Amino acid sequence: MKNLEEKIANADSLESLEKVRVELFGKKGLLAAEFAKLKDIPGPEKKAFAEGLNKRKAALQVHFDERYEHLKAEEIERVLREEAVDVSLYSTLAQKGSLHPVMETMDRIIDYFVALNFSVETGPMVEDDFHNFEALNLPKYHPARDMQDTFYFNDGSLLRTHTSPVQVRTMLETKPPIRMIAPGSVFRRDYDLTHTPMFHQVEGLVVDERGKVSFANLKSILTDFLHTMFGEVDVRFRPSFFPFTEPSAEVDISCIFCEGKGCRVCSHTGWLEVLGCGIVDPNVFKAVGYEDVSGYAFGLGVERFAMLIHQIPDLRSLFEGDIRLLEQFR
Ligand code: DAH
Hints:
It is a single chain. Helix content is 39%, strand content 20%. By secondary structure, the chain is α+β, with helices and mostly antiparallel strands. It folds into two domains: 4-82, no CATH class; 101-329, Bira Bifunctional Protein, Domain 2 (BirA Bifunctional Protein, domain 2, 2-Layer Sandwich). A hairpin with a 2-residue loop joins strand 6 and strand 7. Helix 1 runs parallel beside helix 4 (43-82), helix 2 (14-25) packs antiparallel against helix 4 (43-82) and helix 5 crosses helix 10. The protein binds 3,4-dihydroxyphenylalanine (DAH). 3,4-dihydroxyphenylalanine binds next to strand 8 and strand 9.
């Protein structure tokens, strides 16, 4: 029973202290063995022996408890030290995606017209000659077909060259009045600074009883639309030709880069062409069996809007998926 304090003091971890606890205080431990001797002690000495033993036990318990508290505190310190998280450590931020500038521009255009109660219509990208050309007053061998460098399939179907065929489909499926836009991808055999084989258009069509839809309506809605998209710009309607509209116009805004003074982007004209429009040609209504109606239509290229709004010089860069370009549109 000597040197028991030393045993406790020498325990250098909670595990070894636990072993010491079993050795001293356990059922088969040293103290238990001492207490067992009690029955052989002669009567008169029993009391003193028991008292001495109990004192010893109490004193050892105090030692033990102190050592336990000490080792426990050390253990907590060690865990705190070894498992510490340095909250000031630099880490890269989580990557977050964003809308492609073309889709973001498309959404802005759609939002404008949806707010004016236009419906949003869609149609197939693989079209037939009737919907893409014939019904839009572009008969076979009409020279205006040259303007639309078309991808044909062997069976005569084609990749739609504009979203105007959705006009035709919507008119065939519903009855006037119609107020619709048709956003979507279109395809042409063309590739340079300002042309890619796939790009996006938004087509618009309004049809109502004859006399209810005028060029004045078209002009006012498109002027307000362009002010919403480009801010304080001048808008001019310039006579032009489209087979599906008569009269037709191309719409220019004053150059947003030089404010109309003339620069490289506007080819020193001071104007930027941004869309085509007109009063729906009677032949288009004839093709879908409409009578006694009038209407206007317009069409625009979404990439052109995105390039002007974000000052992107090369259309092709929009489709290369280069993260360095896309990151600028977060
Ligand atoms: N479909 C024409 C194109 O792709 C754009 C267009 C011009 C649509 C005038 C129209 C319009 O509805 O009236 O070039």
